[in-house]
Write a structure and sequence with these properties.
This is Small G protein signaling modulator 2-like isoform X3. Pfam families: RabGAP-TBC. This protein starts with 28 loop residues before the first strand and ends with a helix. The protein has two domains: 87 residues, Helicase, Ruva Protein, domain 3 (Orthogonal Bundle); 130 residues, Cyclin A, domain 1 (Orthogonal Bundle), CATH 1.10.472. With 268 residues, the chain is mostly helical. Helix 2 packs across helix 4 and helix 9 packs across helix 12. It is built from twelve helices and two strands; from the N terminus they run ββαααααααααααα. The chain is elongated.
């Protein structure tokens, strides 16, 4: 997978025919050696087939990932594929899920190195993996926290959401939280927003991602309220606004929202 793996780590498939057992109790096993293991090992064919299914899904997504961004030539798409395949092999219990390519891509653009990008992606996934389905339930927590924030900081908006079909479940934020807003922003803005989210953990709030999400909603508050948007309207609106947001303005508003909540708590 990655360039710095041991030369002994091969992916050759061999089947043990167990001929010495007179053809009985055949157990097909693979001699596929783990690319992540220094000692290797023998793995069941089922495991190798599972990995193959994941690779099939990876190949489909890699070809579609940021195809219009000039960095992603065929050579660099291969690097992206290698990083994802290696991560999935090391985390087969999770497997590949849509969105992983989106999280790797900006790291590879910045670092332009497979090994470094893989290492950074592993650390990023320590925080982000719980957002993916069947991986920890963090998404439900995000939705609940968004509901509370809007209810506290913008009761008028909350009432509109509640009355117009009740979309206070905040499912329209799903892609935002899954990818740290990667598909909502221009590439250069992705780098700025990601670094701010990471730094905010030490500087202001470990939940800055929530305040950035709320700031996105509040940026278009007047439009949402004036048009009495329902759930379908707001999904369509934000899909059409993808990559058209003023990231600096949204970031500034997000910081102000953090301050507003901190002030409310201090004055309580």
């Amino acid at each position: 997978m990655l360039d710095n793996k041991d030369n002994n780590n091969t992916s050759k498939l061999a089947v043990d025919d167990n001929e010495g057992a007179g053809g009985s109790n055949h157990e097909q096993r693979s001699a596929c050696i783990s690319p992540a293991s220094s000692q290797g090992g023998i793995y069941p064919v089922e495991l190798v087939e599972n990995f193959g299914l994941n690779v099939h899904r990876i190949d489909k997504d890699v070809q579609r990932c940021d195809r219009n961004y000039p960095y992603f030539t065929l050579e660099n798409l291969d690097k992206l594929r290698n990083i994802i395949c290696t991560y999935v092999w090391d985390h087969l219990e999770m497997g590949y899920m849509q969105g992983m390519c989106d999280l790797v891509a900006p790291l590879l653009v910045i670092l332009d190195d497979e090994t470094l990008s893989y290492s950074c992606f592993c650390l990023l996934m320590e925080r982000m993996s719980a957002n993916f389905p069947h991986s920890g339930g963090a998404m439900d927590t995000h939705f609940a926290n968004m509901r509370s924030l809007v209810q506290i900081l913008d009761s008028e908006m909350f009432e509109l959401m509640h009355e117009n079909g009740d979309f206070t479940h905040f499912y329209f934020c799903y892609r935002w939280f899954l990818l740290d807003f990667k598909r909502e922003l221009l590439y250069d803005d992705v780098f700025t927003v990601w670094e701010t989210i990471w730094a905010a953990k030490e500087m202001s709030s470990s939940h800055f991602v929530l305040f950035f999400a709320l700031a996105l909603v509040e940026t278009y508050r007047d439009i949402i309220l004036a048009n009495h948007m329902d759930f379908t309207d707001i999904i369509k609106f934000f899909n059409e606004m993808a990559e058209h947001h003023d990231a600096k303005t949204v970031l500034s508003l997000a910081r102000n929202l953090v301050l507003q909540l901190q002030t409310l708590i201090e004055n309580k």
